[in-house]
Design a protein that fits this description.
Elements lengths: L11 E6 L35 H6 L11 H13 L4 E4 L2 E4 L12 H12 L9 H14 L6 E6 L6 H22 L5 H28 E2 L7 E2 L2 E9 L2 E10 L17 H11 L14 H20 L4 H6 L23 H17 L4 H17 L4 E2 L9 E2 L4 H10 L3 H9 E7 L4 E7 L3 H31 L9 E7 L11 H31 L13 H8 L4 H11 L5 H12 L3
Helix pairs in contact: 3-4, 4-5, 5-6, 6-7, 6-10, 6-14, 7-10, 7-11, 8-10, 11-12, 11-14, 12-13
This protein binds adenosine-5'-triphosphate and magnesium ion.
Protein name: Unconventional myosin-XIX-like
GO molecular function: actin filament binding; ATP binding; microfilament motor activity
Family: Belongs to the TRAFAC class myosin-kinesin ATPase superfamily. Myosin family.
Amino acid sequence: MHRMDSSTPKKASSKQVLSQKSPPVVPEKPKKKGKLAAPSGDPSVDTNLSVPRDVLLQCQDLTKLPLLYPQTVLECVRERYLQQQFYTWAGPTLVAVNPCLPCHQLYHQEQVASFHRAVQAGSTPLPPHVYAVAGVADHRRSCGLGHINQAVVVSGESGAGKTESARYMLHYLCQVEHNVAVSSLTTTSSSHNRAALVAETQAKVLASNPLLEAFGNAATQRNHNSSRFGKLLLLQYSGCDLRGATIDTYLLEKTRVTHQPEGERNFHILHQVTAGMKADILNSNGSKARVRHHEQQQHHHEQQQHHEQQQHHQYEQLEYEQHHEQQQDNQYEQHQEFAISSKATKDSDVAALHTTLAALEQLCFSQQHQDDIFKVLVALLQLGNIQFLEPKTAAAGCAVKGDNNALLLASELLGVTDEQLSTALTVRSIAVPTKDRVSVFCHPCELESECCERLRACMQLLYQALFSHVIAVVNLQTAAASRQHWSQFIGLLDVYGFEAFEHNSLEQLCINYANERLQQAFIQAFLHTEQQVLLEEGVLVDECQFQDNSGCLTALDSPISVFAILNEECQLQRAVDEVAACQRVCRALQHS
Ligand SMILES: Nc1ncnc2c1ncn2[C@@H]1O[C@H](COP(=O)(O)OP(=O)(O)OP(=O)(O)O)[C@@H](O)[C@H]1O
Ligand SMILES: [Mg+2]
């Protein structure tokens, strides 16, 4: 979540990267000599620079500030934020600051219609707003301006409001599409069919959001609904019609299944399942319990309440943490290491489960299919309760500790025998392909820690496979029938928010790397090209200086780099001495 009190405010920046010259509706680029020059940290910059407050408030485009320096830019965004002006252009890029409060009027239906009218009329410049970004993309698509395919990249730190921004853009695009389909309705059955098809596609695309968030989002210290994966949604169009959508996901933080940083939660869906079993909505094997009469009556009410809660969730955080239940009696939270910490109330998880179930229905998951998915989730909860015993004699291997109950339940739910599961967790096997056959060497694990590591890996792989499966099924439902059915797309990329903790995991390194690569692509596609265009037009521009972390990227992903060495070590499948590995990386990078 964005915090405006920081001395170096970090903003959610919603960047539209369109790979051709700016369309007529976006603000003009600055052309005066020296205007692009804003060297950060330059000792020659006058730190007392100030722009009158009313000029800052009126300024809808940062590139039009009379003085363009880092501090004036930050001041402008801050002043506008304090006046509830949450959006500001920076050329064709939109800078969005998380309002941290509900602002329904900003995203009202009427706003959609008004931006649509303004875009159609070619009004320029459009007021800075997330709908303006979506509107420009939609207008360029429908008028065949510029490139066939476009992408809107939303980037920023965790909690900055990326997912909300992407959601609002999706709503804008669906709403506009719906209005167009309805307005073109004639009495012919083909136009009714077309409108019905568009409505069905929209409903499915919109239903995919809560489903993906249930499986891929979790409460973190920064964001109660943090996306723990990156998502690219491609809206597929043919002529004027939305024909379908596909979802690509990246870098699911699967380690969260077995370990959550202090004060954070596991993926929402696991909490929903736990709450669902306690509330008798799900049976102990994950199948749906028979809905009792009063629950049926409550169901609709809860769903509505949950929808409202989602809007206001953030603002109830403190209150809802006070409701935090220890849940020591929970059989699914026995084992400390894999325990799912709980911050939300049981009620909010139950309401969220209803939303997930409704989304599964909307996306045509059959009852059997839903039961199978929930079985795997309950199996994961059971796997988390398995513990191991080290062998008393050197000859024997580790064994599963206690009465094996969790092992029995998990194996039954996963459709394997308890022996198979126990062997998979306690015996290391290496397959060596020879000329005409594969030889498998088995070695019982002697250390409890090794078995725990195998269990963690098993749970993470299982969750990743389930997540990929859900995405694949959603895509089957939402994608256009075939490649012939669509000719262009608008992509909405909601990348995983970058973060820097005191200790950063490998996942965090990959996330930050992905963000840095995107930033690099943006610099290449936008700043370099813009400079080139200005030079070609004979406009004198001081060379634009910007922070460029390409050196860090080379150190990470070149042929001799951190990632190359890590890959090599992984392929060797041997225990790695941390100090030696660090020295190796340092030696390799010395000359790069
Ligand atoms: N435009 C907005 N209007 C009102 N509230 C917002 C808006 N954008 C974000 N928020 C609030 O901030 C919270 C965090 O936003 P969001 O989940 O979009 O962040 P994010 O950038 O996607 O973070 P992460 O990288 O952790 O997924 C939202 O749940 C919502 O409460
Ligand atoms: Mg997000």
